[in-house]
Design brief:
A hairpin with a 7-residue loop joins strand 6 and strand 7. About 35% of the residues lie in helices and about 15% in strands. It contains 10 helices and 10 strands. The protein is α+β, with helices and mostly antiparallel strands and about 280 residues long. Helix 1 runs antiparallel to helix 5. It has one domain. The structure holds cobalamin and iron/sulfur cluster (SF4) (2 copies). Cobalamin binds next to strand 5, helix 6, strand 8 and helix 9.
């Protein structure tokens, strides 16, 4: 199993699987981008610091003792899903479906990656599919963070609203698989954990602040409790959710109609000189 072959299989899955569509109509995701981290990268240990995630965090080797590589991928939402959520107010129906059946497809992708690695003679698991996986909403953290894995695997950096900005932007979902097969790590082409967001760099954007319907984002960052309350307790889409059997609402206004929606915001904030 090599990187190219793995990406090819994942790309074909994204383009052909009916699981990546809402009832065979529009597709949720475009093909993924993929990154690789050394399971012994010192940064994984750093995640246990309180100011990064905390001691709830489990290292790759605490999930799979033989771990050598963490494979992380980003599934960017299609133009149709992204643009459907451009209006302010409630999440679009396309975005809502991309959150719930869309995450089921993400689970399918995790299983396909595991199966391919096993077929190549390796061991593999996805923490999000393991029974030990927990999300503690008192501290808004889980024992495996998809964004922090993606950061270490070279896929992108954090931002003012806490989402991870990849070369395909932030509008989409992440997945990861830990394996004992060895792949070369992807270089991290950024200087610090917030490098891709012009606001956290030098106060040059802030577009997501106005997009949030509950003012959860300020120049200081994101208030997780406000966002959580809106999605889970206010649950503004509860009638639609009942119809489709979804447990709570989606929103994602801070990830759509913003400069980091589908690329790293660059030229708009840092124009190239003509000379
Ligand atoms: C709990 C959770 C939530 C909580 C809290 C979010 C949060 N920021 O933690 C609530 C319910 C509010 C939430 C909301 C949403 N979520 Co959510 N959520 C999760 C979940 C399950 C765990 C996140 C977690 O463990 N956080 C841990 C804490 C510690 O993270 P943090 O505080 O943001 O981390 C900061 C520090 O580490 C800090 N930092 C300080 N010093 C340093 C130094 C270094 C070296 C580093 C690396 C970092 C660092 O930087 C980080 C960013 O500020 C993940 C799935 C998963 N298991 O990963 C999805 C996930 C984060 N959610 C996701 C999404 C899409 C959403 C929503 C858009 C919902 C929707 N679909 O409509 C909203 C908005 C998200 C937003 N603006 O960030 C995506 C993110 C996609 C992206 N591009 O980043 C994820 C990864 C799910 C997925 N499979 O893709 N979510
Ligand atoms: S909208 Fe602007 S400030 Fe907000 S995360 Fe994206 S680049 Fe950063
Ligand atoms: S998901 Fe919605 S409520 Fe949560 S921070 Fe983003 S815009 Fe605000």
């Amino acid at each position: 199993m090599n990187k190219k072959k793995l990406l090819q299989i994942m790309t074909e899955t994204a383009l052909t699987s009916t699981g990546n569509t809402f009832k065979n109509t529009y597709r949720f995701y475009d093909p993924p981008i993929i990154g690789f981290a050394d399971a012994d990268d010192q940064l994984f240990q750093e995640m246990k610091k309180d100011e990064i995630i905390g001691d709830i965090y489990r290292l790759p080797k605490e999930w799979l003792p033989e771990a050598t590589t963490v494979i992380s991928y980003f599934l960017p939402f299609t133009t149709e899903v992204r643009h459907s959520n451009h209006e302010p107010g409630l999440a679009s129906i396309e975005w809502l479906h991309a959150r719930f059946p869309g995450e089921e497809f993400n689970n399918q992708m995790r299983r396909i990656v595991i199966k391919e690695l096993e077929n190549a003679g390796g061991k593999a698991l996805a923490p999000m599919l393991e029974p030990e996986m927990v999300i503690d909403y008192n501290i808004y953290a889980s024992n495996w963070s998809e964004r922090h894995a993606a950061y270490i695997a070279g896929l992108g950096t954090f931002s003012l609203n806490a989402a991870l900005i990849t070369e395909k932007g932030m509008s989409g979902r992440f997945g990861s698989v830990i394996t004992n097969l060895k792949f070369d790590p992807t270089p991290r082409s950024y200087s610090h954990p917030f490098a891709h967001c012009p606001q956290t760099n030098d106060g040059k954007c802030g577009a997501c602040i106005q997009r949030c319907p509950v003012n959860a984002i300020t120049k200081e960052g994101k208030d997780k409790a406000k966002c959580h309350y809106y999605l889970f307790t206010d649950n503004p889409l509860q009638d639609t959710n009942k119809e489709f059997g979804y447990p709570y609402s989606a929103c994602g206004k801070c990830q759509s109609n913003v400069p980091c929606e589908s690329s790293i915001p660059g030229e708009r904030f840092y124009p190239k000189s003509n000379s």
